[in-house]
Design a protein that fits this description.
The protein is mainly α and 459 residues long. It contains 22 helices and no strands. α1 packs antiparallel against α2 and α18 packs antiparallel against α20. This is Dicarboxylate carrier MatC N-terminal domain-containing protein.
Length: 459
């Protein structure tokens, strides 16, 4: 039986590797592999295999991405960006923090990578102000990481949704607060290391007439990535190209908001207040259903944007996460997860085991899908907390944050997009800085998060 368990784990890793190298959809292969392994190795019925598909997570992801797709489709998101940038005025020292705040808000709207819309806006502003491009790239990247763990966004949904599915009690708001606080610390650190203090003393250098707005775009093709090899940055360059070509024609801030935009703002506020209110009374808010409820109101006000938003539901991520969790369910049935737990316990103390799994999450996520890592590693961390020596919520929260803060490296989508949106002569320097920063987070993240979250639960 142990041989079959090891074989199932090897197939799991092989599928992950094959999908990454061949650039095919991970969820499709993982579902097929789950069926094959479940039938031939675990002697499971097909109904039991398919029963492991996370339907509740599907509803959650579909509801969230649909709700915020409407907000983007009717121009509400662009209006918010426009207003904030206008309010900043010529205060250069505030720009990194403003970009962080805007990106956090956008990333909290369902899809963390939607925050990449700020990169081609933030980088030209950094150049005009004389702000270090590495600092600005980290500000946007940290906003994506922090906002991505909101109860309404993908990283958060996958992390606490997967944790709940395996019996680990993780409060969605607590997860968000932890991720946001740590990313604020990272931003402040980058502000000190990359010349932010000089902005307090130097005069502003801001040309109001050439300020990039949310409608900012360029018709020039994206420059080549400095470390690009075949297929290396295909996804990240595609994301950046979409952001640049999108160029949503956001009206000036002085233009009155449309009825649909006013309704969207009210629904966004209502969603946040509903989630907080339900959580405060001790209940577990079903964010997916709440999103569908408010999205229904928005759709009735403006049916055209509602129809267009259906196509923007993140079915790709739903399939990917569903495939991974389905396979992990097969591993759990076979006892492979318990076997890994026993192997982890042999490493030494639970604290060391938690550090190692966070290290693995950060290292792999620096080169692969953060969402995929979260869906795969969260269930595999269960044995670490089964003994009760450390708190499950602390391990899962630490793992989630450690898997996302490395995304600013140029080997990942966020970092590669940052490099692609700076001037050609600056790319080698920005690439080197982001590489050092991103890879240092592979070690710094686990040390800080395990020390701050996991260690206190053992005392």
């Amino acid at each position: 039986m142990v041989g079959l368990q090891i074989l199932a784990i090897v197939i799991f890793v092989a599928v992950f590797t094959l999908a990454t190298l061949r650039k095919v959809h991970l969820g499709v292969i993982m579902l097929a592999a789950a069926a094959g392994v479940g039938i031939w190795l675990a002697d499971m019925e097909m109904d039991d295999i398919i029963g492991g598909f996370p339907v509740s997570l599907l509803v959650l992801l579909a509801g969230v991405t649909y709700f915020f797709a409407i907000a983007q489709q009717n121009g509400t998101v662009d209006r918010i960006i426009n207003v904030v940038i206008t309010r900043i005025g010529d205060r250069a020292v505030l720009l990194p923090f403003a970009m962080f705040g805007l990106t956090t808000g956008i990333a909290a709207m369902g899809a963390p990578l939607a925050g990449l819309v700020m990169m081609p806006i933030a980088m030209p502003l950094a150049k005009k102000y004389g702000i270090n491009r590495t600092l600005m790239g980290i500000a946007v990247g940290s906003g994506i990481s922090g906002g991505g763990f909101a109860p309404t966004s993908l990283f958060g949904i996958v992390t606490y949704g997967t944790a709940h599915s395996v019996g680990i009690d993780l409060n969605p708001l607590l997860l968000f607060v932890i991720a946001l606080a740590f990313n604020v610390v990272l931003l402040l650190t980058a502000f000190i290391l990359f010349g932010g203090l000089k902005l307090l003393k130097s005069p502003d250098r801001f040309d109001r007439d050439t300020t990039p707005r949310p409608g900012f775009a360029t018709k020039d093709p994206l420059p080549s990535h400095p470390f690009e090899r075949e297929g290396y940055t295909t996804r990240s360059r595609a994301v950046a190209t979409t952001v640049l070509e999108r160029a949503s024609e956001a009206p000036p801030a002085s233009t009155p908001m449309t009825l649909a935009q006013k309704c969207t703002v009210l629904c966004m506020a209502g969603l946040v207040l509903s989630v907080v209110a339900v959580a405060m009374v001790g209940l577990d808010p079903d964010i997916g259903i709440l999103c569908f409820v408010f999205a229904t109101v928005m759709t009735l006000v403006d049916p055209s944007t509602g129809r267009a938003a259906v196509a923007k539901i993140d079915w790709s991520t739903i399939l990917m996460v569903g495939g991974i969790i389905t396979y992990v369910g097969v591993l759990q049935t076979m006892g492979a997860v318990d076997m890994l737990g026993e192997a982890a316990s042999s490493v030494g103390t639970p604290l060391l085991a938690a550090f190692i799994i966070c290290l693995i999450g950060g290292l792999v996520s620096a080169f692969a899908s953060t969402t995929g890592m979260l869906a795969a590693l969260v269930p595999l961390a269960i044995p670490l907390v089964s003994g009760g020596d450390i708190a499950g919520w602390a391990v899962i929260a630490a793992l989630g944050v450690c898997s996302s803060i490395v995304d600013v490296s140029p080997f990942s989508t966020v970092g590669a997009t940052a490099v692609a949106t700076v001037d050609e002569d600056e790319r080698p320097r920005v690439t080197a800085n982001l590489t050092r920063w991103g890879l240092s987070m592979v070690v710094v993240g686990p040390l800080a998060m395990v020390g701050a979250l996991v260690l206190p639960t053992m005392l």
